[in-house]
Amino acid sequence: MEEKDHRKIGKELDLFTFSDLVGSGLPLWTPRGTMIRHLLDDFVWELRKKYNYQKVEIPHITKKDLYVTSGHWDKFKDDLFRITTREGDEFAIKPMNCPHHTQIYARRPHSYRELPQRYANTTTCYRDEQSGELNGLARTRAFAQDDAHVFCRIEQANEEIQKIWEIVHTFYESFGLNLHLRLSLRDLAAPEKYLGNQELWDKAEKILREVASANKTKYVEASGEAAFYASKLDFMTKDSLGREWQVATIQLDVNMPERFDLTCINEKGEKERIVMIHAAIMGSLERFLSILLEHTQGKLPLWLSPAQVKVLPIGEAHFEYAKSVLEKLKAENIRAEWDSSNESLGKKIRNAKTEKIPYMLVTGDKETVEKKVAGESRDKGQMGEMGIEEFIEKLKSEIKERK
Fold this sequence. Notes:
The chain is α+β, with helices and mostly antiparallel strands.
């Protein structure tokens, strides 16, 4: 259904574009689209910050050696964008972030008292997808991941995964997206597909089952859906078309710490192998936005809308009061615009509805004299007249609660 296609919605709302000169699968983000991306990322960071995550940054390229050590080179070398330097060294543009993050942890020895170390990093990754597989924002060659990695002792893993579980559910509940769980496991009939030994995999899978059971959550077991280095909890959701998507993921990795020799100094002064938890809340921001735009039909919640209010003066005689309303809204950090065109009020309202702006405020003779506004909600219809201060308090409450 074209009206539900996120590419059509994104064009109507002026969120992103593609350019033949830039290349297929490489979205370009407009000011409005960029604002939405930052608001989503800020929300995830707000949820992570209370659990003492720290932000890190990494380069977008790496020597081949990093992925040879991690095991990604053998598995994914055909999916990588590769670069050869003038000196003949082979580099790759990063398709994932975890190997880079291991090297931040490995920069110095860590005492067990310093663990867990929790790194968060929203950064763009690149994969050489075939052109026939590209699909708007749902499948791209460049995509941003709200990635995080926790380095901890194995006995800390259960508690750390539970914290991520709570972040995931808080985030998706705010959009009315119901989650169900998939425990993605190895295919025991094809052990050659996976790194590491069975004993370590068994330990990791036992912990993931314990977390799912502790939350009294039904889940399906999916053999063969594990990453080649780790079993994982995959959170699945259905959009308004009934299509199923994998969104957030939590992976308990016992293999990469082995390959990169990641340890802590324990109570006995000895080196102790640690584990690594991979966690993405949205996964790919691009894919999440494609799901959200189609699920909401572009009617984004107030806190996420690039323009939250449109002020509509009926005529030029009402411009001055309309501008004063606009400034009061902006002073309270409400994203407001006004329509100063010579169109009829009916046309202005239709345009604002096409833009899917959550609230419209009409200013005419009566409103100008009484210093009020006539409000209309995109979702609930006419609101009647009210003072601008009352309207502002209503919006601030709705924004704060992320309704």
